[in-house]
Predict the structure.
Amino acid sequence: MDSHRLLVFRQIARTGSIAGAARALGWTQPAVSQHLRLLERQAGLPLVLRRPRGVRLTEAGQALLRHADAVAARLQAAADEMSALAQLEGGTVRLATFPSAGATLVPAAMSLLATRHPALDVRLLQAEPPEALELVVAGEADLAVTFAHAGQRPAEPSGLVSVPVGTDPVRLVLPRGHAGARAGDVDLRSLAAERWIAGCARCTAYLEEVCGTAGFAPDVRHGSDDYVVVQSLIAHGLGVGLLPRLALDAFRDPRVAVRDVPGLRPRTIQVTHHREAARTPAVRAAVRAVLDAAADRSAGRRDPGQGRAADSAHSAASSS
Amino acid sequence: MDSHRLLVFRQIARTGSIAGAARALGWTQPAVSQHLRLLERQAGLPLVLRRPRGVRLTEAGQALLRHADAVAARLQAAADEMSALAQLEGGTVRLATFPSAGATLVPAAMSLLATRHPALDVRLLQAEPPEALELVVAGEADLAVTFAHAGQRPAEPSGLVSVPVGTDPVRLVLPRGHAGARAGDVDLRSLAAERWIAGCARCTAYLEEVCGTAGFAPDVRHGSDDYVVVQSLIAHGLGVGLLPRLALDAFRDPRVAVRDVPGLRPRTIQVTHHREAARTPAVRAAVRAVLDAAADRSAGRRDPGQGRAADSAHSAASSS
DNA sequence: GCCCGGACCCAAGAAACGCTTATGGCTCGC
DNA sequence: GCGAGCCATAAGCGTTTCTTGGGTCCGGGC
């Protein structure tokens, strides 16, 4: 039951004649006639009675017309839905993100996205970078917002591509009364004797690496990937730690002091998706929203250095 | 949104890969690949993500799959319904018939049809021959069972074809006590002085014609196309009349006598339909049932002369 | 570490489908 | 009776569509 012929048959029924259907379709009469003949052969039944002024549907023709109308309606619905998805007048996009971005950058991006495409259903999933990438690979998320500390290679599964979003400086967090809090910047080597609070597994590895470069092995006493917990431990004088600025933007314990450590390279933020998903409008729009949100944050902080990184990444993605 | 491509896409979704869809369809892989590419171009969106082990549907692809499934189901339903109609496992056939056949021949035919094709919906419409043909022309009936008196030309609208079903002798009806009822056969000329009861318009014309041939003009006092009324009038001695055997088979007033009139040619019964409707299984089956019912009636009466006419007509129709 | 197999894409050629042109039959209306 | 409208058939050609024969990428096994 060829559906193309079915739609031709629908025109025959509409106009009441083969010649009329041909006119409606912009074809010649024999073209429609042949379609009808093949359709009748497939059906094994006459579908119309040929009469002097045109044709009249047989019972089988009327039955077939009902099906043809249903098929045409469904095809139209499919085209409409595709158009809506292409115009972002619908659809879903799922972002997997790590906590500190999920409390700062990503909500801002989601807000931008909601403003630009009100009908788009944006959903957030929280996951640390490795798990976030897994979600994308497994198809349970469309985008992963991840970070990588300087010197760490982000394990990027094949088939995925990453767009740099910007950098996130890593800062030293001390108890307010700590001696180091009196200076503006702090040299890491001066903290060789401190007790340390570590973060997630990758952050701990980073901490050990930078301390090793500074010439000592950190005395890690506690660990938590929750930046509220880390700051609380520090506030109680149980150690010092490194936290990225996004985490400190998300939550800042008033009992801690924050200082820069010269030479500490920032972690990089990136957004990752399937290589081919770049052609999906929802993914493109979401990537752009993340980049724009990052640029807005940088501009709001009046920090041209950060702004450049985000801006350049943004324009690169926009042109792709 | 080409539906053929949609069905190919459905196979891609089913098998999870383009190559798998190609195997399922008995095609090569590039053929399916090209269909998918054109479908994605039409949709304006990627429908699948190409991954090492095959493809994964995007959100748009999943949406399209739902439509594709619906289209496929509707096409299958259409094919099924066409098949059912072709096998006479459904459908309707409407017979228009004149009263005396509607009380005798046609119910027998309908019963045959119901036995042979229990799912076929057979419907009867009563109409005198000219109106019955109009119903067929107007598409309100599929078949017309009509009669024509000898010498009358059945006005057959163009586009219709008629199949002879058999003949129906016209008999003389007299009051039981009438002098003519004493003889076996009756000469029409002996009834020149009688008062006559006429039937329908065409029957009245026939009466006047055969009386004219016999040399007199009938004194028509009453008229009714209802054979019960006619017999009642005759039974009450209000006149004599001619009635075809089918009418007398349908109803026989015990107070009347029936005699043959030698030389009175029988009326002919025929079944008429659109020329092209001969290819419609329901119409073919109905025509055959009418012919078979007529043959059964002839055989049941042990009247080979009648049986021959019906049989020959039957075999002619069967071979068409 | 390298090769092999599976899956996909692209380009070009061949087969097939589909529309057009040309012609004829039929019915209706002037 | 003849033209106009509708439909059918047959032949021709163009476009679509499938195949063939390349190539790339990724993952698994020796």
Observations:
- Chain B touches chain A through 47 residues (CB under 8 Å).
- The domain at 88-167+267-319 of chain B is CATH 3.40.190.10 (D-Maltodextrin-Binding Protein; domain 2).
- Residues 27-28, 30-31, 34-35, 51-53 of chain B lie near DNA strand D (CB under 10 Å from a C1').
- Chain B has a mean pLDDT of 87.
